[in-house]
Structure formats: structure tokens, C-alpha cells
Automatic annotation (TrEMBL):
Pfam families: ABC_tran. The lineage of its organism: Bacteria, Bacillati, Actinomycetota, Actinomycetes, Micrococcales. SUPFAM superfamilies: P-loop containing nucleoside triphosphate hydrolases. Keywords: ATP-binding, Nucleotide-binding. GO terms for molecular function: ATP binding; ATP hydrolysis activity. This is Iron complex transport system ATP-binding protein. InterPro entries: AAA+_ATPase, ABC_transporter-like_ATP-bd, P-loop_NTPase. Residues 5-245 form the ABC transporter domain.
Amino acid sequence: MTAALDLHDVTVRRGGTAILDNVSWTVGDQDRWVVLGANGAGKTSLLQIASARLHPTTGTADILGERLGRVDVFELRPRIGLASAALAERIPPRELVRDVVLTAAYGVTGRWRETYESHDTDRAHDLLRLFAVDRLADRTYGTLSEGERKRVQIARALMTDPELLLLDEPAAGLDLGGREELVAALAELAGDRRSPVLVLVTHHVEEIPPNFTHGMILRAGGVHVAGALADVVTDEHLSSGFGVPLTVSQTDGRYAARGAR
Ligand SMILES: Nc1ncnc2c1ncn2[C@@H]1O[C@H](COP(=O)(O)OP(=O)(O)OP(=O)(O)O)[C@@H](O)[C@H]1O
């Protein structure tokens, strides 16, 4: 099977600095990856490459079997779902929640005069139900809580039935209840073999849903460590990756970290 992502020595330079530095990374077609790293480590830049929104300065990036630089990115992008704060900012606050999801079928935000097939409207409703926000379908996006918005954003990212789903800090700004609901929904998604390949960027090991399989810690633009999740989320790797002494614990498939004494 073709890897969902295959990056070889990817470097991205901006103003003389390597914001990604010789990153090599292979994501298999059933993988569920978590990408961790301190502020500025390069996580968002990595997702920009993985979502065909940024090209490497040097190195090669194959996404869903297509090489960046050779493929028409406008054909590739609909095969990739992305939920990020930058994309969320483009959603008009007055848009109905059902349309926030539905308009992804056309790759637009803001419904205009498009007509949608009934299978599109059915799919949008099913996705809202999957994330337990179907009761909000007739509300405007701007009236939702942050947690409700996050779930609507992920439903939108799934609308095109992508082969790869990239989630950039989906739990940022959520309260404890909202975070736990989101983690549970993502655990369910990750546990379903029909789901797309998943890559979740987060700062906090508490946000890693059960059923995720692999982990990477980025440090200063480079891969600090990558591999099976349990081998990556350790005292040693987190401490060196974040530059502070940390102790990690694991209970029922969930991780927690605190400063080591
Ligand atoms: N266009 C740019 N020009 C110059 N520097 C950039 C540019 N884009 C990103 N950077 C820098 O690259 C580094 C990596 O940024 P990136 O947003 O990928 O990190 P991150 O790990 O997602 O950080 P955070 O956790 O704070 O969101 C940062 O130091 C950032 O300032």
C-alpha cells in the first residue's frame, strides 16, 4: 500500500532559518499519529506541508502517492481534510452550522447559490451527529461555544470523505468537559478502520485520544523522536523534547504529564 505521507529530508527555510530541518517521516495507510512539540517547534509548518499548502525548500514530500511540486495541488487538497485555527477564522459567524459543513463539498466557506445533492445534505447531517452537534444544525456558527465550534470544524474537514485528516490543536481553548468530549469522539474515529489516516497536532499529552498508534516529537524544526506511541511518550523523550524534566503516566490508554520533582 502507498504511504499516506512520505517525507524525505524536508527542509523549509524562512529568512535564513530552517523552520523545518531535514524532516523524514512516513505515515502508513492505517496510522493515527500524534505530533507533539514546544511552541515554535514546527508542528503547524509540518501540517502545512502535509496538507499541500506549503512546499519544501529542499527534500521531497509525497502525499497520498503524489509528489508535491509535480501534482496539481487543487486536485490533491480535496483528498485531505484539515481543521486548523487559521481555517476556522474564515468561517462566517452568520453561517448556519449545517452550511458550515455542507459548503466543504465545494471547498468554500460561506454559502452562496450552490445547490447541493441530497446525499451531501445527508452526509453533513451524519457528520454533525457523529460529533454530537446535530441539534445545533440550524444555529449560526457565531453563536456556538468554542467546544461546539471545534466539533463542527472537524465534521467540516470530514465532509469530502478525505483519505487523510489533519487536526491542528483541536482541543486548544476547550474547557475540561469539552476536551474530554472531543477526545472521546476522536478516539472513536481513530478506532474505526474506515476512518481516514489521522494526524493530530497537540501541545499536551492529556489530549492524545486512545486508539492513536504513533507519535512524533518535533524540536527546533527537526524530528526529535518518532515511532510507536508508547515508545515516544516517555519521561526521557518528553523531557528532552520540551526541555524541562517531565514525568509521564498512562492509565486506560490516556497519558498525563507533570514536572518531575
Ligand atoms: N513565514 C514565516 N517566516 C518566518 N518564520 C516563520 C514563518 N512561518 C513560521 N515561522 C517560524 O517557524 C517556527 C515554527 O512555526 P510553527 O508555527 O510551525 O510552530 P508550531 O510548532 O506550530 O508552534 P506553536 O506550538 O506555537 O503553534 C516558528 O519559530 C515561527 O516563528
